[in-house]
Design goal:
Blueprint: H1 4-7, H2 13-19, H3 35-50, H4 58-68, E1 79-81, H5 83-91, E2 99-104, H6 111-115, E3 123-129, E4 131-138, E5 157-165, E6 172-181, H7 182-192, E7 196-204, H8 205-209, E8 218-225, E9 238-239, H9 241-253, E10 257-259, E11 265-267, H10 272-278, E12 280-281, H11 289-295, H12 297-303
Parallel strand pairs: 2-8, 4-12, 5-9
Antiparallel strand pairs: 1-7, 2-6, 3-6, 3-7, 4-5, 7-8, 10-11
């Protein structure tokens, strides 16, 4: 169960439903993304990352977080468990508490995706230390994918996200915690069975970002990670654009505004989507999403416009 000290940061479900329609781009299985649609999505992400106020540099934030969570990496060591072991752990809990806490770091941070998968109501942004997030999962059957096929002009853009342990406390992954109960276990397993399960300690995001909180809360959660020798790990693929868009827009959801008692607007979880882009890498494990998106032609046209004319909309 999510700890009471973290419950106060949970997003109410009615607010969740109110904003959910804005964080997903839908494609049909077998449908190709057009070049126009690709440019439009890249442009939207370019606006999201580079055209907003108070965007912080990656080096400053990562340096701050690394200093903030200078925990002994041995203390943060994760334990591998099997799907059967996890199921038995849930079944052996008292009735009414048969659930486990998952840490979502890719498409699972998008609230729309989660509503289709589990009956959860509570989500809490969190950080995982000692793991690296990489776009190197190549879908084995892209024609059946719920996010469609890549643009014909960009056939290598098929990759989804994975994380793997580095045992380095400077490697940080932000995601969300949510609970999965026994009735949703088999559906969750069917979708994610390609992954290994690691039981890890994660840190509360809001507390980690609070300079006045010297002792942020840690909690145990289950994390999905591809086996090291899995055949879908491909070092030569690029991010699937629709998947990428839904991923970063899901991250933007956690940065939406709330109104203070003084009538001022402020982000609920400031810097969340920036940190996604700063700590997510291409399959070369060196290039960040920030760097890659900024180099795309559709983004260059926004950052360095040759004309004031707005591009045509695809839809």
């Amino acid at each position: 169960m999510l700890k009471k000290s973290m419950k106060r940061l949970v997003i109410p479900i009615f607010l969740f439903l109110f904003l959910v329609s804005a964080v997903q781009y839908d494609m049909k299985a077998g449908q190709y993304l057009s070049k126009c649609e690709r440019d439009e999505l890249i442009g939207s992400l370019c606006h999201l990352l580079f055209k907003k106020k108070n965007t912080h540099g990656d080096e400053d934030r990562l340096r701050y977080l690394s200093k903030k969570v200078q925990a002994d990496i041995r203390f943060l060591k994760c334990t591998k468990v099997t799907w059967d072991e996890l199921r038995k752990t849930i079944i052996n809990k008292p009735r009414g508490k048969r659930k486990f806490t998952a840490f979502g770091y890719g498409s699972l941070i998008n609230p729309k995706r989660n509503l289709e998968l589990v009956h959860t109501k509570d989500y809490i942004p969190a950080l995982l230390i000692g793991y690296k997030r990489v776009f190197h999962l190549d879908h084995p059957s892209p024609e059946t994918s719920s996010v469609g096929l890549p643009a014909v002009e960009h056939p290598k853009e098929t990759a989804r996200l994975d994380i793997f342990p580095t045992h380095n406390s400077s490697d940080i992954v932000n995601g969300v915690l949510f609970e999965i109960d026994l009735r949703d276990f088999e559906r969750f397993k069917a979708r994610e069975s390609v992954y290994d399960i690691h039981e890890c300690l994660v840190i509360n995001y809001a507390e980690a970002m609070d300079p006045n909180n010297r002792f942020p809360t840690f909690e145990s959660a289950y994390v999905l990670s591809l086996p090291e020798d899995h055949p879908t790990r491909n070092p030569n693929v690029l991010p699937h654009i629709v998947y990428l868009y839904n991923y970063l827009k899901g991250g933007e959801y956690w940065e939406h505004q709330e109104t203070t008692m003084e009538g001022e607007d402020k982000p609920l979880y400031p810097g969340y989507v920036d940190l996604l882009a700063e700590t997510t890498y291409l399959s070369d494990q060196r290039t960040t999403l920030y760097q890659w998106i900024k180099r795309q032609g559709a983004c260059k046209n926004i950052l360095f416009p040759q004309s004031k004319k707005n591009p045509a909309r695809c839809r």
